[in-house]
Inverse folding.
C-alpha cells in the first residue's frame, strides 16, 4: 500500500535549526512536496523535489533520497511564525498526492 | 503566482440543507481540481478529482450522490454537500493544477469551514 510517515510533533527553540523527516512508499513516484499549514488555514507550498539532493530556498531546505524513500525539511533560524504543521506529500504514478498526517512544529522562545 | 479562491470561507447551516462551495483559479486555467476534507488534527483526505468537462473521480468511501462536483469551466469547480448532517462538519479545501504545466504543483484555496447544526 501507499504510506507516508512523519513525526506527529516536534519542539524547537527560536533561532535554532530543526529537521523534519518523512519516509514514503508509493506506487511510482513523481516528486515529493512539503507544505506548511497554520491552524485553520489551507496548506501553502514550500518545496518540491523530484531528483536526489538538497534544494535550498532561503531559510528552508528540502532533501530527497529516492533510493531510500526519504525526505527531510530543514528549517534554519527559526522564528515564532514558523510554528505550524508541516505536511509531507508524495506524488504517485497517477499524479495523485499521498499525504502524511503532518508534523506539528512548536517553537519556544 | 497562481491564486485559487474559495467561497464561502465559512458557512453554518441546519441539518438537511445543501451547501455549495465554489473553487476558482483566478489567474490560470486549471484542467484538474481536487477536493479535500480535513478533520481537526488530521491530514488532508482527498475526496475527489475533478477534470474540466468530465465526471469527477471519487475516492473510495466518498458518496458521489452526497458530494456533487461540477467542473464546468477551466477556472471553476463546485462542491455541493447535499442533505448535510453534523458529521459533514469539516474544513473543505480545493486545489488546482495548472493546465499544460510540467510542474506538478497543486495550488490550494483558502478553505471553507462547514458547520452543520
Amino acid at each position: 500500500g501507499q504510506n507516508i510517515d512523519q513525526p506527529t510533533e516536534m519542539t524547537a527553540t527560536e533561532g535554532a535549526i530543526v529537521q523534519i523527516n518523512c519516509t514514503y512508499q508509493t506506487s511510482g513516484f513523481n516528486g515529493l512536496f512539503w507544505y506548511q499549514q497554520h491552524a485553520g488555514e489551507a496548506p501553502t507550498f514550500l518545496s518540491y523535489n523530484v531528483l536526489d539532493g538538497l534544494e535550498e530556498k532561503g531559510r528552508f531546505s528540502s532533501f530527497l533520497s529516492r533510493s531510500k524513500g526519504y525526505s527531510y525539511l530543514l528549517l534554519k533560524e527559526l522564528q515564532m511564525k514558523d510554528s505550524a504543521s508541516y505536511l509531507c506529500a508524495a506524488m504517485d504514478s497517477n499524479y495523485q498526492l499521498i499525504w502524511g498526517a503532518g508534523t506539528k512544529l512548536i517553537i519556544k522562545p | 503566482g497562481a491564486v485559487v479562491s474559495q467561497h464561502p470561507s465559512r458557512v453554518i447551516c441546519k441539518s438537511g440543507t445543501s451547501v455549495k462551495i465554489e473553487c476558482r483559479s483566478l489567474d490560470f486555467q486549471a484542467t484538474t481540481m481536487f477536493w479535500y476534507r480535513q478533520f481537526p488534527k488530521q491530514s488532508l483526505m482527498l475526496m475527489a478529482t475533478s477534470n474540466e468537462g468530465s465526471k469527477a473521480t471519487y475516492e473510495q468511501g466518498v458518496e458521489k450522490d452526497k458530494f456533487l462536483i461540477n467542473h464546468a469551466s477551466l477556472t471553476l469547480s463546485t462542491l455541493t454537500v447535499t442533505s448535510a448532517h453534523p458529521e459533514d462538519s469539516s474544513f473543505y479545501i480545493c486545489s488546482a493544477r495548472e493546465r499544460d504545466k510540467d510542474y506538478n504543483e497543486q495550488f490550494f484555496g483558502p478553505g471553507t469551514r462547514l458547520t452543520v447544526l
